[in-house]
Amino acid sequence: MAAMIRLFRSSSSSIALRSFSTAAVSETLKSQSYPHNPLPTNIEPKGKTVQWVFLGCPGVGKGTYASRLSTLLGVPHIATGDLVREELNSSGALSKQLAEIVNQGKLVSDEIILNLLSKRLESGEAKGEAGFILDGFPRTVRQAEILTEVTDIDLVVNLKLPEKVLVEKCLGRRICNECGKNFNVASIDVAGENGAPRISMAPLNPPSQCISKLITRADDTEDIVKERLRIYYDKSQPVEDFYRNQGKLLEFDLPGGIPESWPKLLEVLNLDEQEYKLSAAA
């Protein structure tokens, strides 16, 4: 864990650090109780370093919305899923072990995730990065506890979709094996249940030059997708409770695809897209 602390320690960053040791964390967590607070209100990212986490089931779109906010706010989007895929495509000693884990739909161990994240943060620190939007981390309470002892998380956005929609989205994912861009060929129209509204999502089709080069991820089969969701429900949902009890969790039910969801997400985050674009161009 010392590596993670060192990597967060940057004079150019406004990330606040606290002293850390494994024993100290253990004792602190045993005695600590977080009062139940309402959901975050009056979110004001303007004028301060953003230190956010995006949670949600596999396939919900964490990467899409975290990436868009990263571009808008000018902070790095760090997706542990991308870190794993980069390692899988490398010739490193870890790639074969990761391939077996991912293809079976299992969760990658904390040790491996922390190792990959540490290397990414080290690279970012060298470039003078300050602030972050984490996507896919933390995914266990243990990881959340470690992160809490290292830095202060401002906000945790929990994106939500019904399971039926999540499965359809995952089965529709495609990647261009030439340019590396992600697309989705699924056309989703799910009737509302138990008072919930109907959810419609148009496909995100590739341009003509990518159509013949589309591939499906090896782990995007129905059985593996459902297994990933089962593991998430069993082991990762307690992370939501961890942040909910700190008053940092913002739950956001996606009303549809990007055209419907993006403006509503900006609204609840108190963000004005045009204002940020004008500021960045000035």
Automatic annotation (TrEMBL):
EC annotation from Swiss-Prot or TrEMBL: 2.7.4.3
Keyword Kinase: yes
Assembly mode: Monomer.
Gene Ontology molecular function: any one: ATP binding
GO cellular component: cytoplasm; mitochondrion
Superkingdom field: Eukaryota
InterPro entries with a match to the protein in the record: Adenyl_kin_sub, Adenylat/UMP-CMP_kin, Adenylat_kinase_CS, P-loop_NTPase
SUPFAM superfamilies tied to this protein: P-loop containing nucleoside triphosphate hydrolases
Family: Belongs to the adenylate kinase family.
Record-given protein name: adenylate kinase
Reactions that this protein is recorded to catalyse: AMP + ATP = 2 ADP
Gene3D superfamilies registered for this protein in UniProt: P-loop containing nucleotide triphosphate hydrolases
PANTHER family for the chain: NUCLEOTIDE KINASE
Keywords tagged on the record: Kinase, Nucleotide-binding, Transferase
EC class of the enzyme, as a word: transferase
Pfam families assigned: ADK
